[in-house]
Amino acid sequence: MSMSRQARRKAKRLEQKGNSGTETKKNTVPMMQELNINLLQPWSVPVMHTVLPPNILNPMIRLTDKLVDDSETPNHGKKLVGQIEKELTINQEDLERIEVSEFFHEITKQFAIICQCQKYPRNADAIRKETWLSEILETWVVSQQPGEYNPLHMHANCLISAVMYLKVPKFKPSLKDHRVNDAGSIIFSSNVGPDTELSQPVLSVQPSVGDFFIFGANQLHAVNPYHCDEGDPERRSVSFNAIFKSEKLFEQQKKEYLEGNHE
User: Given this model, what pLDDT does residue 263 score?
Assistant: First the structure.
């Protein structure tokens, strides 16, 4: 069927219009891919998550096996809020002996650097060039049993806290299908940001063996109770508290302190 001159002109215009639209769409995608996008969140403290490598996880399991089985291991529970019977002190010398101490110091410093860069995003390059110092103040093992729990709390007299998971039992299934991962979960709660469309004020994580979390010491967190029907019921974790400071600031404060003593 032959088209009239008017119909042919209309078809040509539509074809040109369609090609123009396609070309614009093609040009848009590379432009978006080339954008360098950063989220500026100086008001938030992240929770860092990683998984312990075998050369850290396995020595920590062996060390805590001995501490949990030894009735002479010092009790750390008097310093803690957990409704948990067995919370035991880990000596820093033991961490050095099994060669895991350096790993914990380094990851503490890396977390501090990430947070400082987030706090001052325009100074990130200078922050990364600084030398940072860290010190682990105390470390303890929590041998949690069914029915025990840790209420919502934060850690005082330190800047950074961490928790790692060495044993996780087979939890009894949840009673609610829409809350299947509540048993034995660690809960991180924030009082910042009421916008629940773009953020979430509560992070709930049911841990696996090897999970390692590091966070600000003032970050509110809790541990849910759980129940087990079979297997070893122990949920074992190790926590530590730490402080950090840039070497430049440390030397400056040290100098000010010494000069003050000479006055």
Answer: 40
Q: What is the pLDDT of residue 262?
A: 41
Sheet of 160-167: strands edge to edge? Answer: 48-51, 211-216, 160-167, 235-246, 132-144, 86-90
Q: Which of 215, 217, 226 is nearest to 167 (CA)?
A: 226
Strand order in the sheet with 202-205: 150-153, 220-223, 186-189, 202-205
Instruction: Tell me if residue 157 falls in helix, strand or coil.
Output: coil
Which amino acid is located at 52 in the chain? L
For residue 177, the model assigns a pLDDT of 87
Is 59 strand, coil or helix?
helix
Is the pLDDT assigned to residue 257 strictly greater than 80? no
In the chain, alpha helices (H): 5-33, 54-69, 92-97, 101-119, 124-129, 247-262
Please state whether beta strands 211-216 and 202-205 pair in parallel, antiparallel, or not at all (unpaired): unpaired
On whether the CB atoms of residues 115 and 45 are closer than 8 A, the answer is yes
Any idea what the Cα angle at residue 122 is, between residues 118 and 126, rounded to 5°? 90
CA angle 75, 95, 117 (to 5 degrees): 105
Residue 2: pLDDT over 60: no
- Give residue 4's pLDDT: 65
Strands 202-205 and 86-90, sheet pairing: unpaired
- Helices and strands: H and E segment counts in the chain: 6, 10
The tokens describing 20, both together, are: 């123009």
